[in-house]
Write a structure and sequence with these properties.
The chain is about 35% helix and about 30% strand. The chain has eight helices and 18 strands. About 25% of the residues are buried. The model has no long low-confidence stretch (mean pLDDT about 85).
Amino acid sequence: MDKGGLIVGKDQVLGVQVTAVAEGTVAFRAVHLQRQRGGMHVRGVLEGEDPLALKERFGTRVPIALCIDTDRCVHRVLPRRLEPDEAVRTAFANAPVDELATSVREGNDSTAVSMARIAVVNTIIERFHELGFRVVRTSIGPWSLLSLQAMLAPEAHEWHIGGHHFTFTDGALRAYARSAEKEEATFDPGGEELPQRLALAFATAWDHLLGAPDQHDRALPAVASAVQEEKARYRYEIGLVASVLLLLGLMAAERWAASRLDRLQQQLQVSATEHSRDLEAVEQLRIRVQGLEEVQRTLGEGERQGLAWQAAHLIKDVPAGIVLDRLAMDPLVRPLKEREPLDLRKGTTAIEGRCTNSAELDRWMEQLRRTTGVRGVRLLNYAMQPREGLARFELELDR
């Protein structure tokens, strides 16, 4: 049993053809049609003599596009294109137009007109409304079938379908008459074969979903009211589904948040343990850094010009005749012993080396005295080494 799905939107309609009206009965043929991206889809069909069967089969959420085509309807084909009001007056010149429900179909050099008494039409509509249906469109006569002609019989001169006979001349409708129905005859509106007797119900639904700008149906108050009810129903269902989805989303979010909170609590417990370990490691590093900083201060590495830079500055211009064997910045006063603080001659540089002659050494000492950062140069020792042919020297610089 197909009652339209979760949401019955503007893409669904029940095309209902009323074929006869008797005391207490309304014979009908119905096609439940849905417009989809790939085309039209027939969700179900039904024939019967009591609209209650429609309610049991399809429910009342799907709106109805109604076509009344009983033997009490009168049809005319006019051989020229006329405005709807003029076509009704021309086709039914002596009829009380105010008492008629009419449908006018404008065509290529022709106009088709149908009428039924408005009291009969309102009685039929009321029957559907009593059962909870909303009749959102009412047409009289078979003219919705012309919407299918271009698809089913585009070049036909005579077209028989579902008990209706149309005659065309040069593409213009010239005559219409009822014809005998063939029970076995079918038609294919696009991949779904249906009995031809359901063609008018299908075409009525087709016109409602796709629009039929050439067809003009008289506006009826009962239909206008049903259209407003249908809009309200659609908005209500959309709001209801949106509320349910929002509620489900909130419940899912709550579950996710609770799960996330549990994971965070577990992570915090692990993090607290790791943090305690990290604090211990940081404290050990702090003690180690303090020791290194003490060594740095002792060695003078925190000064603007470090010892390494000063040493490189002193020896960058050593003459070719001088070979340096040792250079000590802030040399030790006495040999370093374990667990004793460093004892350095701060601001002193000790240099030992060899030279070819004293004149070369004198020139370099004079050069050192002019060097930035050197306050004094003293020669502590100078001795010739006959075997080497060089003299060994010791210098002391004050910085």
